[in-house]
Amino acid sequence: xxxxxxxxxxxxxxxxxxxxxxxxxxxxxxxxxxxxxxxxxxxxxxxxxxxxxxxxxxxxxxxxxxxxxxxxxxxxxxxxxxxxxxxxxxxxxxxxxxxxxxxxxxxxxxxxxxxxxxxxxxxxxxxxxxxxxxxxxxxxxxxxxxxxxxxxxxxxxxxxxxxxxxxxxxxxxxxxxxxxxxxxxxxxxxxxxxxxxxxxxxxxxxxxxxxxxxxxxxxxxxxxxxxxxxxxxxxxxxxxxxxxxxxxxxxxxxxxxxxxxxxxxxxxxxxxxxxxxxxxxxxxxxxxxxxxxxxxxxxxxxxxxxxxxxxxxxxxxxxxxxxxxxxxxxxxxxxxxxxxxxxxxxxxxxxxxxxxxxxxxxxxxxxxxxxxxxxxxxxxxxxxxxxxxxxxxx
Amino acid sequence: xxxxxxxxxxxxxxxxxxxxxxxxxxxxxxxxxxxxxxxxxxxxxxxxxxxxxxxxxxxxxxxxxxxxxxxxxxxxxxxxxxxxxxxxxxxxxxxxxxxxxxxxxxxxxxxxxxxxxxxxxxxxxxxxxxxxxxxxxxxxxxxxxxxxxxxxxxxxxxxxxxxxxxxxxxxxxxxxxxxxxxxxxxxxxxxxxxxxxxxxxxxxxxxxxxxxxxxxxxxxxxxxxxxxxxxxxxxxxxxxxxxxxxxxxxxxxxxxxxxxxxxxxxxxxxxxxxxxxxxxxxxxxxxxxxxxxxxxxxxxxxxxxxxxxxxxxxxxxxxxxxxxxxxxxxxxxxxxxxxxxxxxxxxxxxxxxxxxxxxxxxxxxxxxxxxxxxxxxxxxxxxxxxxxxxxxxxxxxxxxxxxxxxxxxxxxxxxxxxxxxxxxxxxxxxxxxxxxxxxxxxxxxxxxxxxxxxxxxxxxxxxxxxxxxxxxxxxxxxxxxxxxxxxxxxxxxxxxxxxxxxxxxxxxxxxxxxxxxxxxxxxxxxxxxxxxxxxxxxxxxxxxxxxxxxxx
Lengths: 394, 552
Known about the structure:
The complex is a heterodimer.
Chain A: H1 3-30, H2 38-69, H3 77-99, H4 102-119, H5 136-166, H6 174-201, E1 206-211, E2 217-222, E3 228-229, E4 234-235, E5 245-246, H7 253-277, H8 281-285, H9 294-328, H10 336-358, H11 363-385
Parallel strand pairs in A: 3-5
Antiparallel strand pairs in A: 1-2, 1-4
Chain B: E1 4-5, E2 11-12, H1 28-32, H2 46-49, H3 54-63, H4 65-81, H5 96-116, H6 126-155, H7 163-167, E3 171-176, H8 181-191, E4 195-199, E5 202-207, H9 214-231, E6 238-246, E7 250-252, E8 259-270, H10 281-287, E9 291-303, E10 315-324, E11 329-331, E12 334-355, E13 361-368, E14 375-377, E15 383-390, E16 393-397, E17 400-403, E18 412-418, E19 426-431, E20 434-436, E21 444-464, H11 467-486, E22 490-496, E23 501-508, H12 512-526, E24 532-533, H13 534-551
Antiparallel strand pairs in B: 1-2, 3-23, 3-24, 4-5, 5-22, 6-21, 7-8, 8-9, 9-10, 11-12, 12-13, 12-21, 14-15, 15-18, 16-17, 18-19, 19-20, 22-23
Helix pairs in contact in B: 3-6, 4-6, 6-9, 8-12, 9-11
């Protein structure tokens, strides 16, 4: 086996371990009917051990890949997103040993699984570095950012648990809808993973030429049946499905097709779950948070932010500016990725001022933490894939 | 407003809530509340005291946290709007009119609206800059409003506080004590690294007061940073020039007096997928070419001190250096970056002087495309005169050849050919792969032989004297954040009344758990009375009342 193969096998091991640990954490929390925390701590120990094994394999993936490629594996969408999943689990492990909260694992691990699965949908072959990335600042800047985002995401997980516990799901309310919308969007990510895997396993591919927004000829390969056609498309593959609608040049119909298939798969899956359980996903999770100490969740959420915020400042702004000055001759250029890092920073600054200055604790704080995670995910997914800029290396 | 005199005799500035000296509640609100509000030690903040004049109103506006968060949210939303479509710096157009057309053509109506609203240049729009300015003002005023009274109050703390002050602290205890209780408490607190002061029958133990300055320190860091950014607009602090330099050329560096740069060689290297790069084979197959290195080998010259202006030989070599991406050339506070390149620009063209019929050659001449000579003498009385040179020939206008740019992209030559047979000369106009004879059929012509090319390197010249200021701002911000978030200010007040009764109160700005951990050790060692967390009591009571309501 080559080093690169060992690396990807270790990632599989980590994935499977997290998957198993998720169920055991769930069992540990659910099985605790009397609320005595005895069985919870016993099964929690088993689950955290498996998580630790998974995390060790995950670290193994990271460093063997580093060895194989000769650079920190943080240089493209697959590598960065996988690392994000890893730091999320790392953050959870630290907090588990501080606060002994299996319920946090039950939420964080599946999210980490989703993130790693999402990452695996992007090209994962070992790729060379362009000149701008050939420096130690790649490892310094990106690893600090990914650690900070992992920690900040923990605060969202704690917030989500808080909300699952306090939001009344028996009455119609904005909160209930918001909570279910979060669940639905997580299912959509799963929809993307399933759609991508399905079409890639069936080997679907269709090539088209089209005219791009600068009126130049270009080519595109669809990996999913084209629902939307590119501007003035011409099919090169004979048996390809004819696109239903042709899009104007500014819309990348290929990406729109992927999004649409993901939504289709995700929505079908969502309603299947609703049909099988006959209740909202939030309501399915509700019994798991029965014994949760909400003050502790509030505390964990806040702790995660006060650790994550300075680390984020250091990595996503200070180190980023130093590197930008060296590589691009200016420390700040209003590149979309830079702007969204600033937005994330401003958002958490607002969070801290509202919490410390205006007494926004508990539920308000929990909603903000979840919103922070949405901004981070937007910066990761949308800014890389939709908004073009210097950082779009997907 | 009038000054407030407390029962203890101390005169407090107007607006004070808790007497600066003894801690008695001075307002009705404070007197009626179960716990005192200790956020700013009950001091008189200007914003909470005056609201008459315009200055008061402006001050109060900017010192509000709500307004501060509002400005942050506005900035955040504005910043996000600026990423919906690319900013004008990122679009392939550079005049006002072409930029406008680009947005309209590429993004349709949405693009037109976006451009009309000025969002294409959002981050340098006056309103965005005003928002940032308001944030800076808010940082300054909100900090001063809180810091000044807080600093005074903490600096002049008295050891002995009035029992009513102590009784309204969150951590409180009252009970019998022994003779040595105070002494033992002092011992233990000192051991726990508290600074202990005593006065008559009481003590004040304090730890981590500096953490209270954290927010103000980090705000100072941000203000220094914003000040640094502002300073760039001052002349002399900031230079941003681009320099295109051909291989073999030596050029004066723009805005950097006395320095010259020679481009010895430009190199673009791509990944080959061979020789240790086999591992990248799959990725290279998928995406095609990936650049590995952009590099300009340069020599930096400096004009000698005693050299006459314009003297060619009055230069000394400062250094030879390969400028690469991520490895700018640095000297004397300036930095030169590898930013762009043009491959294979035409350098010189070689022609053969031939008889059109016999194709006999009478010699060759080479025309430099950047700085062409006028006359070219060949052997045996053959010569060429260059009458007109059009480096980027774009067609004729009124019979005159035109050039689009000064760059030799499509050179055109108007030449006169002289031979012993045709001493008055034959005129011909030569462009790549085409010869026009405007004044009638010629016997001779210049036949294209070869072309020399070279690369042009696009460099950026920078000087940014504000960087140390920005760095300092960032550093101070980080220190302030750590100071305020990871440390906390803990205090205990202990008094022993003449009958031996111990009064104990504790306060921290955050992390009550840590405070209690400290206190438990002191309570045990000095046998202090058991304390209660009055906030918990209040919470419990409220909860019980709420449940009572639900039940009834």
